[in-house]
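Record pair follows.
FIRST:
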Amino acid sequence: MPGRFGRVLTAMATPFTADGGLDVDGAQHLARHLLDNGTDTLVIAGTTGESPTLTHDEKGRLWTAVVEAAGDSSKVMAGTSTYSTAESIELTQLAEKSGVGSLLLVAPYYNKPPQEGLFLHFGSIARHTALPCLLYNIPGRTSCKIEPQTMLRLAEVDNIVGVKDAVGDMAEASRLHRDTGGAFEQYSGDDKNLLPLLSVGGVGVISVASHLVGPALQELVQAFERGDTRRALELHTSHLELFEGLFATTSPILLKACMNLLGLPAGPLRPPLLDATPPQVEFARGLLAGVGLRPGEGAGG
């Protein structure tokens, strides 16, 4: 069965105008496109959405605009956690006012709090909202891992309902599934680990590739759910080059290159990230060709 947020969540890129401004119209267009092409829930202002370079005002405008475009608050999840607990609570309250239906809370980055600090950070945010919260464990970016015992403690908080897992340790994921009876939902934070995580109790993915191949990802999860593991594996292996290739340099550089090639609202990246170089654009073109997409044909899968 799909998780409470669906099977395929998209960590939505934030479209910018040519001069680097927030493209609100583009964000609404992209949101509708994704929801029409395999996405169950949109995750707005996460890392893929270049959240570190968005102001609080821009995040509020973005959340409000995407909720309006989605027409259903339950389909919009806001990334509100930062390295500051007080700021995270402030952003969470702003997201609530914007009408979102859920929250993604990344582990604090840069300041590397101890496990008790993590427990207090997430618990404090959760106490300041009635919205369901999904933790985000990605030590490769944060240098701060939510350890299994801390995860179990957080799973006891009523509105902390699951985790976006970018650790990729299937033994740990197995134990978390066992120790919570599957009630604490696990979404893969890496497209390439979607199928392995499903096999140990995961419920879906928070995806980057779903901008391009959302229907294929939906089919992969649904094939697994109905017991057609052969088909799920075929879809996994046939898209593996795309899953890995999008991260050949810092994301979302190559994702935005692919989106711009396909005519989807994306625009440039904000510094300190850089737009794809000409060789990287050609690499992106090859990734698209590998899954049957050509510039001008739109994204599907």
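SECOND:
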Amino acid sequence: MTSDTIAAWVAFKLGARFIKVTDVDGIYLNGTLQKELRAEELIGIETCVDAELPNYLMKYKMNCEIINGNCPGRVVMR
């Protein structure tokens, strides 16, 4: 478990939207960026999220959005 699952726990406790801001555009499977995945599809494969996160998301029925924080305009504070 890393900060991904800890951040999911914090979001769950706060009832907040869970957004992972990272240095990649998202999750790639077979070289293709995935627009949407179910957490169970990530079990056992190496991605930009920690290995425990899919289990946590399934257990608590949570969503996770992945955004590349290196691209200006993708994250806007309001």
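COMMENT: The longest strand covers residues 19-22.
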